[in-house]
Design goal:
The protein has 236 residues and is mainly alpha-helical. The chain has 9 helices and no strands. It is 67% helix and 0% strand. The termini are far apart.
Length: 236
């Protein structure tokens, strides 16, 4: 028995029917998509212009006041992050170690994913040293070496510990840190400095026993006389 032919379909009529039925939601969806695309493009354009303006202002900055303007006017831009580091360096040169420390702390809080996080922490530790807070500086150097082992600052953080440990007369601990640096970062520039420090750090000598008391000559026991051999008989 021959198969029945498929029912005829008017594609144009079905398309028109679909359009008339869903025309309003389709138009709304298109308008929303267009507005979103325009908004995203406008945001990107604004961000690019803002980033370019921040970079230009940073390039013209020459002092701490100029860096602060970049930070305040263009927060969140790469130029503002760089301005934080430059401001901290300018404050350090002026002897404002506490202010420099606070600026670097602000950088760390604002840009936690920045590639120069370990550099900022090294600067904070150096400022602590300059303020005479050596124990806090030593603790921060240890944190840098432990938390950023693949950073170029890790061997420098270890070497900085050596100097502080020497000042505290903790020779054995300083030797261990030098050995760690030479083992883990033997190709680093700072390995040569660590080797030189290790040669200067002599191991502590074991305690010597107390000297025996000296006996006065008049109490010393006189030497015993040597036994005399019997005289040999005379030959006839």
């Amino acid at each position: 028995m021959p198969a029945a032919p498929p029912p005829s379909r008017d594609v144009a009529l079905e398309t028109r029917f679909f359009w008339e039925r869903y025309k309003k939601p389709i138009l709304i969806l298109l308008v929303v998509a267009l507005v979103g695309a325009l908004g995203f493009a406008g945001y990107r354009f604004y961000q690019d212009r803002r980033t370019a303006s921040a970079s230009a202002l940073l390039a013209a900055a020459k002092n701490a006041h100029d860096y602060e303007q970049v930070i305040a006017g263009y927060s969140g831009t790469p130029a503002a992050a760089d301005a934080c580091l430059l401001l901290a360096e300018a404050q350090r040169k002026e002897g404002k170690f506490a202010e420099a420390y606070a600026t670097l702390q602000r950088f760390i809080d604002k840009y936690p994913k920045h590639e120069l996080q370990s550099t900022a922490r090294m600067g904070m530790a150096a400022n602590l040293e300059s303020m005479g807070k050596n124990d806090e500086a030593l603790s921060m150097y240890r944190q840098i070496a432990a938390n950023y082992p693949n950073s170029y600052n890790a061997p420098l953080a270890l070497l900085s510990q050596v100097y502080l440990l020497k000042a505290k007369n903790q020779t054995e601990e300083a030797r261990r840190v030098c050995e760690t640096l030479l083992t883990q970062y033997r190709t680093s520039f700072w390995a040569g400095e660590a080797l030189q420090e290790l040669r200067l750090l002599k191991p502590s000598e074991p305690a010597k026993p107390p000297p025996m008391p000296t006996v006065p000559p008049f109490l010393a026991r006189p030497p015993e006389p040597l036994p005399q051999s019997a005289p040999s008989p005379k030959q006839p």
